[in-house]
Amino acid sequence: MPQLNPNPWFFIMLTSWLTFSLLIQPKLLSFVSMNPPSSKAPETPSTTPWTWPWT
């Protein structure tokens, strides 16, 4: 059963994981968020009930 042979697949997985961890991930994490979270409490708008003309 050749699918149980981990010899070629383990090297491919290890290479792709190292490429992601060492090259791609630091580039992605260096981007600054365009909408940083704020510590301000959210405001709830005051709403008035709708008056229906037929009631």
UniProtKB/TrEMBL annotation:
Keywords: ATP synthesis, CF(0), Hydrogen ion transport, Ion transport, Membrane, Mitochondrion, Transmembrane, Transmembrane helix, Transport
Feature: compositional bias, Low complexity: 44-55
Transmembrane segments annotated in the record for this chain: 6-24
InterPro entries the record matches: ATP8_metazoa (IPR001421), ATPase_protein_8 (IPR050635)
Any one Gene Ontology BP term: proton motive force-driven ATP synthesis
Membrane topology type: Single-pass membrane protein
Segments of this protein annotated with the region Disordered: 36-55
GO molecular function, one term: proton transmembrane transporter activity
Tree of life domain: Eukaryota
Compartments (UniProt record): Mitochondrion membrane
CC terms in the record's Gene Ontology section: mitochondrial membrane; proton-transporting ATP synthase complex
The keyword Phosphoprotein belongs to this UniProt entry's keyword annotation: no
Similarity comment: family membership: Belongs to the ATPase protein 8 family.
Protein name: ATP synthase complex subunit 8
Organism in which the protein naturally occurs: Hyliota flavigaster
